[in-house]
Design brief:
Elements (H helix, E strand, L loop, with lengths): L1 H22 L3 E7 L18 H9 L1 E7 L5 H10 L29 H6 L4 E7 L18 E5 L12 E4 L2 E4 L12 H15 L5 E7 L21 H26 L6 E7 L10 H6 L16 H4 E7 L8 E3 L3 E2 L3 H8 L16 H4 L10 E5 L7 E6 L2 E5 L7 E4 L15 H14 L9 H13 L1
Parallel strand pairs: 1-7, 1-8, 2-10, 2-11, 3-4, 3-7
Antiparallel strand pairs: 2-9, 4-5, 5-6, 8-9, 12-13, 13-14, 14-15
Protein name: Arylsulfatase
Family: Belongs to the sulfatase family.
Pfam family, one: Sulfatase
Amino acid sequence: MMKQFFTAIAFVFACMPLFAAATEKPNLIFVLSDDIAQGDLGVYGQKLIQTPNLDRLCNEGTRYLSAYTGTSVCAPARSSFFTGLHMGHCPTRANREIQPEGQRPLPADTVTIAKILKTAGYKTATMGKWGMGMFDTSGSPFNNGVDHFFGYNCQRHAHSYFPNYLYNDDQRFEIPENQGGKKQVYAQELIQQDVLKWVDANSSDPFFLFYAITLPHGRFEIDDQGIYKDKPWTETEKNYAAMVTRIDSDMGELVELLKAKGIDKNTLIVFSGDNGSSFNPNTAIGKRFNQTMDGKLRGFKRGMYEGALRQAAFAWWPGTVPAGRVTDEPWAFWDLLPTFAELGQAEIPQDFQPDGYSLVNFLEGGPAPQRDYFYWELHENRPGPIQAIRWGDWKAVRPAPGADIELYDLANDLGETTDLAQSHSELVSKAVATMNEARTPHPDWPDPATAAAAKKKSQKK
């Protein structure tokens, strides 16, 4: 009997590392590339731009054909991820600029993924582009759960890849080598080095990293055209290709660091673009790189078609996320907050209801969560939003405020070439009703009817 007791005790101690590993909180990294298109990556069909590291990570993990952004410009796309809310509820539904620097801040007391993970003991950081509020506002990264920040706060400032300064936390980090119009220090190099330094320093604790890479957003600048220098292309084309390949090499460096620190098998990386290509596919550069993959996806940045909303995306977590899997089951940015909260064993506040669903089972190889619909809107300099909604394989688009609804069958017409609204009036009615149901009225984000009435009233005065 005593022998059996000691055998049992020995077994428990022998298995303790396994039990600990089973409950260890994973590191969580979301990499968001600004304006990269599905067709820019080799695994999605790109022939001219080299992305060997991203292609390898896709093949070592799961690649998503229907990964949806929050909406089709950057500030609300980032806000959708950070708040777990789609554009019917998100506090930021457009790019709204503040002078002399910054964007409309997240409201006070906004629930964010960084705040949630901090309650579970996570170290948190954001590098790259913030654009959700300057440091003296409620939208400061440090009012929203971020321990460390490095990069551009203002997304207008981020248009310069050779800036005079960046921010290290809330302090200006001067770059004298770029003063007076000189272009000696590439901002992405400084940002990448800060990412590597921070991950290295925090590798013994569970961490959450939001890496908002500014590349390949315009202005299209690069410090080294590399393998594209002698291509018979325009300077913009060579710079764009080099920017995409720079993302690729930086991702390779990050993964090598994870492996060197021995934490790769306990780290989830989710990679995505934020709003599809900034180039009209009919322009020279759009045609050069075939970003729509021979017309497979329609549209680009600031639109509501699939080319704007579907992103180049993958998940990588060796031993947990299935390798070599390619799936067309849809998910969206607002799903990542409940996903990361579940993985981090963090409690979502009881009085907060995210719009997303946890993808943990989906990441591990199961089916995507079932839901009633996906919803998007975008407000710019127009009376009300453009809108889109998807349920099942049906997709409805309102391409301009107050415009007639277009209806597409994505299962048979992924390129959204044939509008079926005239022959499916009942589905159009359902789409309009669901669009109205999906959004919360807000004076800053009026619905098309309210905005049109206000504009008409102002014109009569």
